[in-house]
């Protein structure tokens, strides 16, 4: 399995063709173990107030494109808050 950094590079360049296992690895790296895993869904908690979760879904081994984009936005927000 590629490193988290390589997966993120791929996510930024082509968010449409990301394996669910890779997206899950990235989420676990940044947000810890999923707080809920049910069926094809995994839900991760985020550290900020509001809607503090990321929900990703396995669709035949692939991640959904809009969820990949949401994870990237959450990572960017996390990195921004760490700098501030």
Count the helices. How many? Answer: 3
The radius of gyration computed from the alpha-carbon positions, rounded to a whole number of angstroms, is: 12 Å
| Poorly predicted sequence stretches spanning 5 or more consecutive residues | none
Kindly, what is the distance between the CA atoms of the first and last residues, rounded to a whole number of angstroms? 32 Å
Can you characterise this structure?
With 84 residues, this protein is α+β, with helices and mostly antiparallel strands. The N and C termini lie far apart (32 Å). The mean pLDDT is 91. The protein is globular, with a radius of gyration of 12 Å. A hairpin with a 2-residue loop joins strand 3 (53-59) and strand 4 (62-63). It has helices at residues 4-13, 20-31, 65-83; strands at residues 36-38, 41-45, 53-59, 62-63.
Main attributes of the structure:
20% strand; alpha+beta; 3 helices
In short:
The chain is built from three helices and four strands, in the order ααββββα. The chain is α+β, with helices and mostly antiparallel strands.
Give the helix/strand layout.
Layout (H helix, E strand, L loop, with lengths): L3 H10 L6 H12 L4 E3 L2 E5 L7 E7 L2 E2 L1 H19 L1
Antiparallel strand pairs: 1-2, 2-3, 3-4
